[in-house]
Structure prediction request, 251 residues.
Amino acid sequence: MGRRLMQRSAIVTGAAAGIGRSTAARLAADGWRVVGVDRQSAEVDGVDIVVGDAGNASVLLAALERCEDRSLGALVCSAGIPPSGPWDSRAHWDEVIAVDLSAPYEALRVCWPALVAGAGSVVLVGSIVGAVEGSLRSPAYAAAKAGIEGLARSFAIIGAPDGVRVNVVAPGAIATDFDERLLPAAERTDVPLGRMGTAEEVAAVIEALLDAATSYVTGAIWTVDGGRSVLAAADAGRAPSGDGPPRERNG
Prediction:
């Protein structure tokens, strides 16, 4: 894959940590020219980091200037604010919507000519929160992530005539600093696979959606949650034994 993707440029927002960092590092290792955008500076092998707000047009333009011929093969929007409260704070609502929804829109808007020039592919990082689950702590986060899916479907239609694909990866419980650990990472009774996922596992799905092998996929939502969103609440305290009906999990 690396040889085929050599010299293509990618912009990854939120590239200093978590899913964004893993995605940026993975693409760089596979031969992409990767420019990361993050509010914090970071050392990521093979990645050129632009420090700034991923929703700021001037920062995004600075990142584009570092891309080969200002032609973009990939845009990955991973920057975000995790679900938190208070739910009734208008200031918190405005901040979360700005970072988790408006910033990806601005990245699409600013980078669109370069994506058209490169017949590029876009992956927006959503969540099962919003599209599948509500959020007791942060309606703002749920609303923003549900909005990400509508944004992707709309831009998939806009981009189709120019060969620009736009998809969403919707993670569940992922073992990064972004997710609050309510249960041990390796003992998740609310996840059929029994554990939290890793940033690297999400990055692998993101890269797959950027690859030419998925060239007929656009406007899609790819869920990466270990089966959590298909698990009935009544079964969340049970663990499959592998040789019969589910048994109760102790502890």
